[in-house]
Structures are given as C-alpha cells and as structure tokens.
Design goal:
This protein is of the alpha/beta class and 226 residues long. Helices cover 52% and strands 8% of the residues. Helix 4 packs across helix 9 and helix 6 crosses helix 7. The longest helix is centred in the middle third of the chain and has 18 residues. The two termini are 22 Å apart.
Length: 226
Amino acid sequence: MKKLYKKNFFEIIFHYFHDNKIFLKSQGTISKNQFIKIINKVGRKNILDAKVFYEKLLKKKLKKTESCITFDDGLLSQYKIALPVLKKFKIKAFWFIQSSILNPSPNSLEIYRHFRNTKFKNINQFYDIFFSNVLLNKKNFKIHLKNQNNFIRKKKKTHPFYSYKDLKFRFIRDYVLTKKEYDKIMFNLFKKYNYSWKDSIKKLFLNKKHLKKLFSEGHLKGLHSH
C-alpha cells in the first residue's frame, strides 16, 4: 500500500454539519454554504467521483491536483445537509461508516458529543461541570497536574486551535480516567440533565435505509470500524 501513496493526491474529509435547526452549530461543524465554498475553492474539476478516484489510485494515475470527498462515522447531518450539495455538483463520495452505528448500542463518542453540545449553553460550561465531577486521587494529583501541563504544552504546538479546557478535558478523559470511570460520570450527567441517549441515536446516525440509498446512487462505502 505504501507505493500507492507516493503521489501528492489528497482527500477532503468531513465530519460535522450544522443547519441551526435540527443540527446545531458546535465545535468543528460547518454549514451548507461553507461546504459549497470549499468545493468551489478546490474546484469542481479537481474533485473526482469516488469510483474514478479509487480506480486511478490503483493504477497510480492520479494527478497532483485531483482529490475526492470523504465522510467519516456515518452521521445523519452529512446525509441531510451535505448530500443535497453533492447532488447539485454531481459528486459521488466515499462514506466511511463506523460499524457500531448498526448495533443497538453504538459507540458512545458521538452520543457524548451530542449531549455536551445540546444540554449546555456552551462547551466551557460543560467542561466546568465535568471537571467538578472528576475526583482525582490526592496522592497522584501533583503527578497528574505535571503530566497534564506537559500534554497541553505539546498539543498546543501541533493543535493551536484547541483551547486550554479542550486539551484538559482530553487529557483527563484519555489518560487519567478509565473508560468505566468516564462512562459513569457521563451517565450520571445524563440523568441530571434529563438526556436520553437512546432517543439521540435516531438523530445522530445513518440507518440501513440511508445506507442502501447512498450506495444505490453510486457513492462508495468504506469501513470505519469501531
């Protein structure tokens, strides 16, 4: 596979979209108009249909200017907001589907994200409440604090768009808490703020009907496994 990636082609990866009606604006989301601007900036002629891109990639015939559009995680906002734009420009894309969305209990990452973006005035309000619910072992507090500061300092150099609280949250979630501890905090907050994660599933993810329609129309599917 390494030989296939010597060319300077690129894929344009999308995750979150907002319309400020059903899908609210939050960190990392873009609107329909912003999506259109990106396509126009890259140039429609430079964006290949997924099948064409894939075939040229295998034959090592991609040009430096040629690109494709991909979507990650199987999110409903992509289908509702981005797909009509693709139809307008007559573009077929890659859809990398997170396999857990086809299970009764999908991966919790997107559910947690939806919770903090819909139940709080802003992300910082969520962070403050989350931090107050994290009880660190006093014996290890100084070690955690030192490691946290090192983590934030390094990440700020490579990811300057993250705020201090963004990085503090990620450090605590990924390096301090166990998955069980993190889940317990989040589910306790669900109860406190009357959030139904089961109801959110239908609002967040594509279902089998959506997927069948996408692939019958010529888009290509890829596995974004959990």
